[in-house]
């Protein structure tokens, strides 16, 4: 397979999905500190010893990662399985502690904040997980699930929480009557909308999305990505989008970094990576994307363009 052809097909396909072009809000504010700054981030995990005399071994999941993301922009992280993408996401979300290095969000060093300040700061950064089936508690109603971040903050009344939940459900194209339902009553795409609503409810500045559409059908993927773009336009959200799929990051991201064995081996715009990849691993990643047959590609683009228009309509 020719990787240049593949790149062309991905790039042209993504552009015809009706992806919203970058708005003025995406222009970096040069005088402001970056929204997210990751400096020399390292995470080693100890491996269990198989016998007592063995020297302790460790997995070097991240080996000195630097990132800078301006407010209102989207950074894609791509890499093979085990390259450290989710480790990076957990450290940025302060769900895990780095071995070395720092994560600054809005100028605050997240891993050095006292617990109470970190809990309060959490309203500024939320996460959307890969699996819309596993990430929503099947025993809780949607109202409880979506208001969970507000409950953790502990500052709003039940009535206010309910009102805000109805608002964010409308923003993701669901109905306020859905608040009384359970996750099993929804499709995969609708569940991911519920997960996005839960992330939105604290008005975050940053959303970290770890493979948010890889469990969904391709037409539903486009709907969810278009919804994320639309929300970015409305609220100026910054995304850190993790994906193994270059077509997905091309749809949503201004810049992409390629992780390989815990290090960034390449960074650039999606087009630069698709058409002019320098690192052998990035080239392998580009050529690994399956080439879509022209007829099927047209049908998919039509579906995706329709998905864009329907992104905010209630789903039945
Ligand atoms: N809690 C942990 N304890 C020990 N090793 C871990 C832990 N979490 C991650 N690792 C190891 O760190 C490396 C990076 O894992 P990570 O989950 O970040 O990869 P990934 O890029 O997200 O992979 P995938 O695409 O499969 O989700 C892997 O070798 C993994 O086995
Ligand atoms: Mg992962």
UniProtKB/TrEMBL annotation:
* Keyword presence, Transmembrane helix: no
Molecular-function annotations in GO? ATP binding; ATP hydrolysis activity
Its Gene Ontology biological processes?
A: peptide transport; transmembrane transport
By its UniProt entry, which SUPFAM superfamilies does this protein fall under? P-loop containing nucleoside triphosphate hydrolases (SSF52540)
The keyword Transmembrane helix is assigned to this record: no
Domain ABC transporter per the UniProt entry, residue ranges: 36-286
* Location of region: Disordered: 1-31
What does the UniProt keyword field contain?
ATP-binding, Cell membrane, Membrane, Nucleotide-binding, Transport
Q: Which Pfam families match?
A: ABC_tran (PF00005), oligo_HPY (PF08352)
* Similarity-based family: Belongs to the ABC transporter superfamily.
Please identify the protein, giving its name as recorded.
Answer: Peptide/nickel transport system ATP-binding protein
Q: Please report the organism this UniProt entry assigns to the protein.
A: Acidovorax soli
């Amino acid at each position: 397979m020719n990787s240049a052809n593949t790149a062309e097909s991905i790039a042209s396909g993504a552009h015809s999905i009706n992806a919203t072009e970058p708005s003025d809000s995406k222009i970096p504010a040069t005088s402001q500190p970056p929204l997210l700054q990751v400096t020399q981030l390292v995470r080693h995990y100890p491996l269990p010893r198989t016998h007592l005399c063995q020297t302790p071994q460790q997995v070097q999941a991240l080996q000195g990662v630097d990132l800078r993301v301006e407010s209102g922009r989207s950074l894609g992280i791509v890499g093979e399985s085990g390259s450290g993408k989710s480790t990076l996401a957990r450290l940025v979300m302060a769900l895990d502690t780095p071995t070395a290095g720092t994560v600054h969000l809005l100028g605050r060093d997240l891993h050095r904040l006292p617990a109470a300040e970190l809990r309060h700061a959490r309203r500024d950064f939320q996460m959307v997980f890969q699996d819309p089936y596993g990430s929503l508690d099947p025993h809780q109603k949607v109202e409880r699930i979506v208001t969970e971040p507000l409950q953790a903050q502990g500052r709003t009344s039940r009535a206010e929480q309910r009102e805000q939940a109805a608002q964010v459900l409308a923003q993701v194209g669901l109905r306020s009557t859905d608040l009384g339902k359970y996750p099993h009553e929804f499709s995969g795409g609708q569940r991911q909308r519920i997960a996005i609503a839960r992330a939105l409810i604290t008005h975050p500045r940053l959303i970290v999305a770890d493979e948010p559409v890889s469990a969904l059908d391709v037409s539903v993927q486009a709907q969810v990505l278009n919804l994320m773009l639309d929300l970015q336009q409305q609220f100026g959200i910054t995304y850190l989008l993790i994906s193994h799929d270059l077509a997905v990051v091309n749809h949503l991201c201004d810049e992409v970094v390629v992780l390989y064995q815990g290090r960034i081996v390449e960074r650039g715009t999606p087009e630069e990576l698709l058409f002019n990849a320098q690192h052998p691993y990035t080239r392998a990643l580009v050529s690994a994307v399956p080439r879509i047959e022209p007829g099927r590609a047209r049908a998919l683009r039509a579906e995706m363009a329709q998905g864009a228009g329907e992104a905010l309509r209630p789903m039945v």
